[in-house]
Protein 1
Amino acid sequence: MSDKINRDRPQLGRRGLLGAGALGAAGWIAGGGGWMLAPKGAFAADPIKMGIATDITGAIAPSGNANWQVAQFTVEQINKAGGIGGRPIELFLEDTASDPKIAVGNVRKLIQDRKVNVVLGGITSAMRQAIKDPIVNRGRTLYIYPQLYEGQECTKNLYCTGPTPAQQCDKLIPYIIKTLGKKRFAMPSANYVWPQLLNKYARKVIEANGGEVVFEEYYPLDQPEYSATIGKIRDGKVDCVFNTVIPPGLQPFVKQLYESGFQKNGGVLSCVYYDENLLNYHPAQEMEGLYSCLDYFQSIDDAFSKQLQADYMKRFPDTKYLFTAGSAATGMYRGIKFYEAAVKATKGDLAREAVSAAMDKAKIEQGPGGGAEMVPGKMHCKMNMYIAQCKVDAGKTRYDVIESDKMVDPKEC
Amino acid sequence: MGIEVKLAFDLLAFISVMVLIVLGLGIIASMMGIFNFAHGEFVLLGAYTVYVFESSGLSSWAGIFAAPVVLAVIGLVLERLVIRRFYAAPIIAMLGTYAVGLVIRESVRGLLGGHYKSISEPLPGVFTLLGVDVSAWRTVIVLTTICIIAGTWLFLARTSVGLQIRGSLENPNLARACGISTSKLYAFTFAFGAALAGLAGALIVPLYQLSADIGTRFLVQAFLSVMLGGVGTFEGPVLGAAAVGGMAAGLPWLVIPVLADPLVFIIALAIVKFRPQGFITQGRL
Amino acid sequence: MLSEAGSGAGVTAGGAGRSGADGPRQAERKRAFRRVLPFVEGATLLLALAAPVVLGEQTNLITLLTNVLILSLLAISFDLCWGLSGIMSFGQALFFGVAGYAIALVGRDLGFSELWGTLPLAMLVGFVLAGLFAAFLLLGRKPPTSIFVALGTLTGSYAAERLVSGWQYVGAGNGLSAVKLLKIGDYEFVEGTAFYSLALGILLLVYAGARFLKQSQLGLVLAGMRQNEERLAFLGYRVQLFKALVFSLAGMVAGLGGALYSYHQGFIGPGNMGPGLSTAAVIYCLFGGSGTLIGPILGTAVVEILTYVLADQAAIKAIWPVILGLVLLVVVMFQPKGILGLFLSDRERIGSYGRRRRDG
């Protein structure tokens, strides 16, 4: 990426006397790491600095890379249209490496070294919990979290642009129980906060609709062996597996479930973060027939979304990291557009309080799957939600939309 | 009846995975007294070999057959260059092999770009056995493990090289006095142990995805298995692996999985503490 | 009274208690022998004191150096075990992490983060946990093999990491974030020069304490233990008990480091008590030079600073861990005494004991 670094800018200028001196000359102060996407061309105004903290390596890498590519794509679109109020956006990337321990240190670089105006990122809730303190409290920076999650994140200056449990479960679960007729649920889960709180919410909806939770179990993230789980699914005559196991434990689980003939015998697998990107994680036949509920699927018949997809694929031809909803890519797009709208509303004032106040009321007219609007005071946004089923076609997956709902309320905070 | 068969099979499949991984480690530990911290990375390299074959368009089966060969060569080279300096000091051996493992692991991580890769089983799907659906690939693993155990036992018991190895296991000095070149035997043993690890990696990678960290996933369990079973024999580590593997797969039935996970270690460590010579006592430690 | 516990080939019979038999040759060697260690220590101290002044406003670098100081505590803790007493512990991070969790929990549940309370608590947690561990691993009817101790500590560290990853109360895989800031009265320590000074002060105290220990009678016993356990046992010393004591003290130091880390990072996770960090401590110590106490500090500084700097260059970023591994391998194979071994004589590394006679 070095050819994109604008060498005219004084890299060390803001470091003061000593930085530009001996240590700088020795190459020691190399500016904090990560990658940088600097705007091309001559922009008179000072750029707006945007930090992306996402998983480029590690178990969540396929989603993290999708996030990063979508961020680059979106920012390039905005810059091509003149930036925000004439100011270009400059992107900085830090790899959170799917490891909260490493992430904390790297995110600190974004804040202290790069001094970004806003940070977008974090995919798993574990990651969000780890990096939100360095960003929001110690770093006093705005933070936008783009991924679907368990809700109850009401920290000030932390905006969530991904779906909440209410948005994902309120229609999906009744559909499974009433339309598909599957009433006995199993909840195999990864052992961390997202599955725990999501399951609590889902259980309420399941029981309110006449279903039953046969068992709810938590595994270490890298559990390799699930025969006990499969046994319980069989014993309990479970007909719907509401899965919240995540990679790396996901692959052995889904494989063992498939091998046990669960789907063959009519069982339904449902997982609310499954999208077209999951092909990067395991073979297609293991997810055939799966039900998911997200804010966007590629098969949606929407002119803007289709154009967005086409432009994205043109920008990143042959990429395996697709622009999908379960991987926080749509939330990333939404988050950047919300930020753009907010800064336009503050007329260029980048102070956190000002932008935050503007963001609180921000609306975007168009986006993947439709527009979105922030619910004032609630840090979350309304968006369109779609229930879809995974169909397999020559080794590729396709999500056929079954139901859609407009501007669903997140019901948070 | 079907359910019990299925569960017994699943348990057997996981134990086979553990045995495959531990066998090489146990042989090296019994023979040379060193715990090879790079063993997990040998498993990783076996898996990586299959990945390389598969992504170059060659058959995965070829990769599976190539993996032990590749690892035998690597093991031999490492033994000559690095490992032989450590025979006198087992603790330094642990550090040295840890360093070797670190180099291998991070090199693979760099080659993989930090990503996780899916490798499909060369023999996918399920087939029906005794009215129960069993995974074809796991069956291959179980059968291969049985063959390897049988083959290794035959080798040790019936061949002259095997006899030399057993002699060196029991009393290296005496073996040397009889004119056996323990140095050559050690090299052979290390290469053999590495080859076993490579084969294990090649066989289990379709189940668990390839990433730079698959080697470390089972390393501590492997060490415990060897200590549990008893260093110094061939059967010891196998039994130890069966015990640890059985606990790891079986405990989640009794306690919640997140507790079962560390419990395996605590129980194994406690057993080792109170029976330090392991299940089968003979030979070195 | 043993004047020296060292044995290694080529070490001159030095210090007190030497008869003047080979007068001129001995005198020559004595002249050639310069004490390097105090220079190294002095230089390091000067650098450490000068750093915040020189770096001024660059918080990210001060943060880096503070991290170095804190991780040095972990490295010293390992050195107390291995360099001083010959106990290979692959699990020092266990005490580091558990103490870090303890003070994070105290901050979260009790709202308490006063320095005079939490740091002693961390030390106590480290000491007690290490003591229990040592009792399990080391004491008993039969003395354990060194392999058992090494693997036992590794297992302990690993099992703890797995246990904590699954335990919701302590945040499970998320770890504990937003750790309440360390404070004295109303003053809160944030990342920066203040925390750096605190960490430096604590490191100095620990270092002085460890040095004192090393030069003391207890240190002499440890040196004997390190050289030849059996011999010392035959002299009547209860070797395992001494090992347990040192292990507990090392655990105390690690615990202190863990608490500072938790306060400084504002985050503590299962990875901070697992084999990953434990083996990092081993690397720091071996790289710098085990047994010298200043070696681990130097090792930590070099490794951490290089990692920070090199992580920036995209080209090296991927292979830096490989380089680190290769360097460690070279160190283990050819230069087990680490960087300091390059210019520190064996005698200085091991140390002299006993009173100095006037001819010394």
Protein 2
Amino acid sequence: MPLFWLILIVLALAAAGYVAGRRRALASAGGSSHGLHSLPSYYGSNVALSALVPAFAILVGWLLVQPLVIENSVSGMIPERAIDEGSSLSLVMSDVRRVADGLDTAVAQGAMTPEEAGSIRSEFTDVRERLGAVGVALGSDVGPEVLRAAQRYRAMSSTGNLLMTLAVLGAAVGGFGFSYIRTHRDFRARNVVEAGVRLLLLFAASIAILTTLGIILSLIFNTIEFFKLWPPAEFFLGTTWQPSFGGGSELGVLPLLWGTFYISLIALAVAVPIGLFAAVYLSEYASKPVRAFAKPMIEVLAGIPTIVYGLFALLTVGPMLMAVFGRDGLGWMQAGTAVMTAGLVMGIMLIPFVSSLSDDIINAVPQAMRDGSYGLGATKSETVRQVVLPAALPGIVGAILLAASRAIGETMIVVLGAGAAARLSLNPFDAMTTVTAKIVSQLTGDADFASPEALVAFALGMTLFVITLGLNVLALYIVRRYREQYE
Amino acid sequence: MTDATASNAAPDAPRKGSLLDQDDRTRRRNAAEARFKAYGIAAVGVGLVFLIALVSAIIFNGVGAFQQTFVDVEVYLDPEKLDKQGNRDPADLRKVSTFGYKPLIREAVFAKVQELGIETEIESANEVEALLSASAPAQVRDFVIANPDRLGDTVAFKMLASSRVDGYLKNRVTRDSIARDKNIDAVHLDLTDALRDAGVVEKTFNLSFITGSDASESRAEQAGLGVSMLGSFFMMLVVLGLSLPIGVAASIYLEEFAPQNKFTDLIEVNISNLAAVPSIVFGILGLAVFIQFMHLPQSAPLVGGLVLTLMTLPTIIISTRASLKSVPPSIRDAALGVGASKMQAVFHHVLPLAMPGILTGTIIGLAQALGETAPLLLIGMVGYIATNYPDGLASGFLDPNSAMPAQIYEWAKRADPAYYERAWGGIIILLVFLLTMNIVAIILRRRFERRW
């Protein structure tokens, strides 16, 4: 594992740098720390950090950029005619990578010499068979262009890796040397180290931005890719969802959106009244011991993983509803997985969301408002309904919007509890499916990422991201505005 | 609108009679008050009932997975059949496949049945095979390969019963439900009853459910959670190793050093939004960035850990900032006053004091990550049968593995109802982990939290 060793060498260099820097600083001050500008450990840390940080920055940057560069240069080698009908450049490129990996394996196992791996021609050897012999299974025969591209890929990666090793080690040694030479009794080591640490802290904080950027970029690029293959109008306005990897799919998002909203609606219809009444009772009526017991108990519902709710929907609630509304009962329900099943269970999951958020908001309503209402002779329930709730309304709406965004983005409950068929129906006992469930079903398994049937998942993800982001921003805006009123 | 506001415009006629007599309106208002309170009690009650229903469904359905039916069989390891050369060479022993062991086992079971004098309609040894798990021959074969010198002896084995027999003893399989099942007949169930009375078939605690590996679709009785537990463990190592330092560093920056500017605002907005992004979107991110773009291995705990790290970061940052904020400014001022730099004040004084709160938040974040399933589905942690224990540290991080929640999902999808029991059992184990983590967090908070 060369990468592992590279990291280890850099770490060892940094550790050595700490000791060496510290010693040099002490030596320059005649062996006592009194003459130094900073504490001796700062001189050590300075050398260690300058060896470590630039080297790791180069390493990470290189690992990110190298595949891009290689991909670009190698994909330029593949002529139009090497791409079969119904295939695409990215498919051919994944073949290239597989062949290149196969050649690596063959060399590693000694089935080929490195020179042979770099020079064999598919015109003379059956590459597929030879790679098959070392346990690398290839889907189709290897064409000359693909093989040449794979050899180029290998050559470029190995040069790239060599250059990377040199650059990283160079940066580490350079940083070490530079700061070691600078180490002197008058060098302001603490200030330098603290500025460096501050930069590191800033970088850690920026990871949140990088994550958001990563989400947006990965969604946008693949969505654009999808809309190149599929007309947006058909996606946004289509009323049938029938993907088939064999071709002849219909990818209309409307049935999925309808399923998502229907299930969320039922979930909110369960969670909002129960959560709200529970919050009102716990904050206005309940005695201290009741509150101390009931509040954490209800919040336990929020800590249970969603897979548990999914299983509960599939194996407990579904059959239970089936017994009442199924063929033996009212005959409305065909199977245990339905909008109602998923909606009910999701509602249970959302109760603590609504209740604890509303509880906080109700508690934030100033006591003076309640006292004023009591003073006019209102009963407790009249106070709650006519004074407390209207005052808390924006916050409660915010809480409900947050719960709605949770419901729309929820995956496991609908994957297990809502069924797989996409349909536009009003019957809550029909099986329907949601955006999240279809993202899972289009992206699991060995789908190739170039077909519209797989890429559509990114367009669905984009839709989901935009909807939930909108709801969250709206909710946060409302909650924030409300807070300004009373604090 | 209630009566109080509806009728306050026109004052009522002067009141007659005692003040203690309630008039209609007061009675109605009091009734409304009582109703309102009853709704509240009902709502809290419904919430608690749901919790109880959920917990009892889990326990009721899942406890069975911790018990498994075993059959005691004494198998004569016939050297004639298992070692034709007679030289006890392990290489030769390996050549005999599990098919070579099947006849020995079923003869042994059949002999036992006849020895006990059980009356049964089963006449040939071939038919008793339905009682045993398909894993039985492999079990005997492994034993023979490990102990070649025992060939020729009669060795007692504790073999797994088939999932149908196991289900019958756990009341999951009934005589009605097997009417169309071609794997087992009613005569087998009669035989099972008789063998149970004779003490040959018995239900005992099943450690291999906790430590074992996943099995193929048709061998529910053999499946265990051990390998995916290791997968989860390696994932949590990644999450802990990355999200704690990054989260603490980010919180320190935002809480102690960040200037009031647009960039800081941008970071804050991003963090609060990331906390509310659906988990499946993080799965898409992991798939696109870590697997498609960076070509990290699919299904590897490393990738799962990276995705879960990004998911947990907002939780950890939010709780860490809260505990940094709760350290009073006098601590910082005192440190600055005796000549510490701002960095020293934070790292030497504020951070240690905030540590209990940070650890509590981290544990709760880890517990959340441990139960998260949706992103794992997208990076390929399902559809993969986790049968191999990782060989070491590197293989633990990089080899394909499953994780506890992904394994539970996988079991829930399988057709055999015997797997449902295992899914519930898996949930019990998962919840025990979560409960332990949360209790540790609560204890930490109770013990070390300081009120300033």
